[in-house]
Amino acid sequence: MALPGYPRPSTATEYDDRRRESRLRETRLGHDRADWRRTRLILLRGSLIPLLLIGVFAQYLAWDVMPERTRLARTEPAVTSIAGPAGPQAADTAVFDLVGLGVLDAGDTARALPALSRLGSVWAVRYDNAGIDTKVIADLIVKVTEAAKAPNVILTGHSMGGVIALEIAKHLHTGSDRRVLAVILDCTPVDLHAVRREARDQGEEMMRWTGWIPGARESRLLRFTVEMYARHESFMGGGRYGFRADRLREAANNVWHDKILSTDTASNGLIEAQFKAIVAGGAIDDLQALAKPVNGKPRPAIVFIRPHDAYRDPIVDVDYSHRVLVEQSGGLNGNLLVVTTRTTAHANPIQRPEEYNTVIEQQIVPFIRLSQRDSPIAAASPGR
Quick one: pLDDT at residue 372? Predict the structure, then answer.
């Protein structure tokens, strides 16, 4: 019963669930917008996409990147003995062969060049698959030649390997007691301008991808994609779906076994480091450092092997490198030999071993021996 002058109390039905829900709807943000429910559903579903992407990325790191990163952390540069010296005259010299872009081990290349043993014992350099540190390689060469009692060193570099060889030669010439007798450059780009535009664009595109994509330096999935794209002309065109399924399977199988599963394949990180060595353009500075005697050691001879027809080399503008080498190492008082070949292309001694071995025996060996014999410092050195 209500007291006089006071409002009648509300009934219990005013607080039932339906009225509370109705009141909540009326006070909710955006209640007056007919499409707010649909917007909230879209936002909710859209938020699932980043979560899905994060999950995929986590699996990419766990199954693709991290195992390879762990494996690469255990790699290190090494040298492998290929052949002994061909005679007693070469017993005090060690020849180290270095390969170019995309290759890890120079073993096969060095074995294709038995004529190098005319210059000394032959060794193949195996890069560190995690990257390149030329000082570490130079220190390794010092240790090996000390153990072999070979105070003289000759470096042979194929394509980009010549850029690495020049930097190693500089370390040895200026910072060790080893005598660098010669550096042999096979179709080497002395700087980025010597790389033909198409190959330069591919290298720069690769560096952009490795900079943008986390884990790209170790990713086998990315490597598989790049290698398949490089072979797309072999299976694209024709067929029911615009490509040849049999050739696609063959290309995928070859890439998987030769580039992904093989332990002798250069990693993405190594390829990036190799290309950066060209981009850095330190070869000219190295040539200048090698152009003068240091600590009683004669300046090394420089040899450049190139096709007579520059357009046989689709990767490097050998005419450009030739001109730079003449400017830096040639001239009246220079110590440069340029060897032109007739059938070789870009740094391919495995494909053209006969011509490579012929020019080594007939031109390079006599030139290196003559240049060291005629050097006033070498002539005055004991035992020379």
Answer: 78
